[in-house]
Amino acid sequence: MVEETEIQTVSFVGLGVMGYPMAGHLANAGYAVRVYNRTASKTEDWLKMYTGMATATPSEAAQHSDVIFMCVGNDKDVRSVVFGDDGVLAGMASDAVLVDHTTVSSELASELAAATAGQGCGFLDAPVSGGQAGAENGQLTIMVGGAAQTFERVCPVMGCYAKSIRLMGGAGAGQLTKMVNQICIAGVLQGLAEGLHFAEQAGLDIESVVDVISNGAAQSWQMENRHRTMAAGEFEFGFAVDWMRKDLDIALSTGRNLHARLPMTALVDQFYADVQSYGGSRWDTSSLIERLRRG
Q1: Which pLDDT belongs to residue 238?
Q2: Is the pTM above the cut of 0.90?
Q3: What pLDDT, on a 0 to 100 scale, did the predictor assign at position 186?
Q4: Which of 48, 76, 178, 246 is an active site residue?
Q5: How far from 235 is each of 57, 145, 265, CA to CA, in Å?
Q6: Each residue of 228-241: pLDDT tens digit?
Q7: Are 153 and 130 in contact (CB under 8 A)?
Q8: At 3, is the pLDDT very low, low, confident or very high (cuts 50, 70, 90)?
Q9: What is the pLDDT of residues 132-146, one digit of tens each?
Q10: Which of 121, 161, 179, 214 has the CB geometry, 3.0–4.6 Å to 116, for a possible disulfide?
C-alpha cells in the first residue's frame, strides 16, 4: 500500500497493452489513479477491474496529480497528448513530474524536459523492456533519463510495476539505452532464428538442441522463452513487428547522427519489412524465422 509520502495521486495517459496493467498496479498499490485513453471503451474496461477516475482529456488527467505517467505509441502520439490546450502540460501543477514510458526519440525527450522545466515541473524519460507479460506481472525493466532528485522522488512509485529501475544519465539517456536494448534484441533474434532454422533443415530435435546449448554461451532469454513457439510457427506472444520497426527506425536514425555503424540492425530491420509483407505486422518479433522458412 501507499506509504505516507508526498506522492499520493497519479495519472496514467494511455491504456494500451502496456499502460493498462501498469496503471492497474498503481491502483492496486493504493494510489489515487486518474486515467485517460483516446478510446473511451478501454477506460471503461479498466475501471471495471481497478479503482480510479476517468478523465475526458490528458489535461484533466494531469490536474491534481503529483506524477503523470504516459505510455502511448510514438513521437507524434506523445506530442498529441502533451501539448495544446487539452494536453498534459496544460493541466500540470508546478511541482508535478511527467514520466514518459513511451519508446521515442532522444530528441523528443530533450524537448519534453525543456517544456516541463519551463513550467517548473520535473521530467523523466523512462522507456521500458519486458513486454506485455512484464507489465502484467510487474516485472518490467525501466531505463531512465533525467535529474537524480526527480528520479529518487518517483522511483518508488515505478517500483509498483518494475523489477529493475536504473537512472542512466540526463534527459534522453533512458531513450538512448532503450535503443541499445532493441539493437541487441534484433541481433539475438536473428541469430536464434537462423540457428533453429538450421537445426530444422538438419533434421535435429529442436528441444534436444536447445536443452544442451542453453546451458552454454548461446543461452539467452529469447532462446529460453521463444524457441518452442518459433518451432511451432506461433507468433502471438510478444512485441509486434510494427513496433519493433518503429524502434529500430529510431535507433538507426540516431545512429546516423552519432556516426555509429549499425549494419546488422539495418539488415534485420529489412528482414522485419519482409515479415510485414507476409501479413505479419502484428506477429511478435520472433517471427524472423518465418522469413527463412519461406525462402
Answers
A1: 82
A2: yes
A3: 98
A4: 178
A5: 35, 32, 21
A6: 999 999 999 889 99
A7: no
A8: low
A9: 999 999 999 999 999
A10: 121
Quote the percentage of the chain above a pLDDT of 90: 97
Between CA 93 and CA 67 the distance in angstroms is 10
What are the structural domains, with CATH classification, of the chain? 9-170 (3.40.50.720), 177-294 (1.10.1040.10)
